Each structure stands twice: as C-alpha cells, then as structure tokens.
Amino acid sequence: MTPAPVLSVRDASQVFGADVRALRAVTLDVRHGETLVLIGESGSGKTTLLRLLNGLQTPTSGDVCLHGASIRAQDPIEIRRRIGYVQQDAGLLPHWTVADNVGLVPWLLGWEPARRAGRVDALLDLMNLDPRRFRTRYPVELSGGQQQRVAFARALAADPDIILLDEPFGALDAMTRHALQQQFLGLKQRLTQTMVMVTHDLDEALRLGDRIAVLKEGRLLQIGRPDELLRTPAHDDVAHLLRYRAEGRRP
Ligand SMILES: Nc1ncnc2c1ncn2[C@@H]1O[C@H](COP(=O)(O)OP(=O)(O)OP(=O)(O)O)[C@@H](O)[C@H]1O
Ligand SMILES: [Mg+2]
User: Fold this and answer.
1) pTM recorded for the entire structure
2) Which one of 47, 54, 87, 204 would you pick to mutate in the ligand 1 pocket, going by the greatest count of ligand atoms within 8 A of its CB?
3) Can you list the domains of the chain with their CATH numbers?
4) Over residues 226-245, mean pLDDT
5) How large is the average pLDDT for residues 123-133?
6) Contact status, residue 87 vs residue 151, Cβ threshold 8 Å
7) What local confidence, expressed as pLDDT, does residue 180 receive?
C-alpha cells in the first residue's frame, strides 16, 4: 500500500496581478521520504510551487495539504518547524552571524541559548564547517558554497520532517556544485527527511531525484521516476528535455 502523501497539491493555480499565470491547475503528491525534484525553465513556476508547499504563498485557487490538513489552517511557526526551507540564493540574514542564522527557527521556538548553541555547532559540523571558525562570521564573509551550506544547516535546525530547497547549487561554479551534490547524496543517506528540490539542471535532477516533476509555463507536464520519464515521456517537451540526455548533450 502506498503511504499517505506528506504534502499534496490539489488543482493549485497562482495568478499574480492581472495576467501572470505562474501556476495552472497543478496537482501532485510529495511522498514520505522521497526526494522530489522540480525542473523547468526560468519562469516556469518552480519557486512559486515551492512557496505554496510551505504556506509562504497561498494559491489563488486550489489547495495544499500537509499530512491531509489544509496548510491555510496551520500555525506559521509550526510550519517553519516542520518544513525547512533553503531559499534561492541562500537568503541568509546579512546582519546576523552564522550561528544566529542557523539558530533562527530554534530561537523562534524559544529554545534555551545553550541548547540552541549545541544544535548550531552540531549542524555546522555536519556541513563540514568548523564551528570555531564559522560560528561568529557574517554571511558576507563566506563563499557562495559556504553560504549554501549555512542555509542548509538553518533549514535542518529544528529537525523538520520536510526540507524544501530552491536551486541550492544554482549559483555555484561547476567544481563546488559537484562537491556539494556529492555531500548532499551522502547526507541523504543519513537523513530521513522528505525533500523537494528545485533545479534547472537535468543532470542534477537525474542524479539526486527519486522522482522528477517537469514544469512548463506554470503547467505540470509530467511527474515520475527518472527511468519512467526517459522511457515514456508524456509530452513532447519532456521528450525534448530528455533527448539531450540520451544523446549525452546538454540542452
Ligand atoms: N510576486 C510576484 N509578482 C508578480 N509576478 C511574479 C511574482 N513571483 C513570481 N512571478 C512570476 O511568476 C512566474 C513564475 O515565477 P517563479 O519565480 O515561480 O519561476 P521559477 O521557475 O522559479 O524561475 P527561475 O528558474 O528563474 O527561478 C514568472 O513569470 C514570474 O515573473
Ligand atoms: Mg526560482
């Protein structure tokens, strides 16, 4: 029997202003423990869909449910505890130290300072950032890859069941990107979280995703395992995206 979905998006549309249709009747489930990758060109609605999943954005129509209950009805701080979020471009608070950034959600939850500090150090260790060197630095004093790792640590801080990652390796050079992808794969084996990750890099999607959802102009074209998409693309655009892969070229 398939377990109940952790998150389910039902017929969700998002309209901005008079005429920007960022999402059009998207329906999908996020399954317990999986890494679901959202892929699509710039402007296809990936970030908007991710923001619906943690209630930062309320759909114009349709609904999003967390463990079966509409996300609209839930307490925003409780959602932050249960769903970690790594924003596009890390999104660290510039005037806060690394320790304060990583400890943000525990602070919101009112954890004692000593418990917060212990958690911050453990997470920096997990991300291969020596706490003694990094704890007191500010985001501007970090490389892009280090900022992304701090953002990932922040998303894990209150041990959420779900982590949303918006192009976590997007702005990095190829070497750093590859190193962080490897680190992510290692972490995935140690963590039990359900993950939803945005990318526009097909290789990354195929390497990291248990399932892939392909978006175009706000529509969900197909969702399935990488081999399903490769074998039976449901749409010309999916076939086109994957043909490059089969031919060993990049789109
Ligand atoms: N707050 C907003 N107000 C108006 N339009 C918006 C807003 N947020 C997003 N959009 C528009 O909605 C569409 C989808 O945007 P979204 O950020 O979800 O795309 P994306 O797939 O994440 O793109 P990228 O790969 O460039 O990050 C785009 O046309 C964008 O301009
Ligand atoms: Mg985006």
Assistant:
1) 0.89
2) 47
3) 7-246 (3.40.50.300)
4) 84
5) 92
6) yes
7) 79
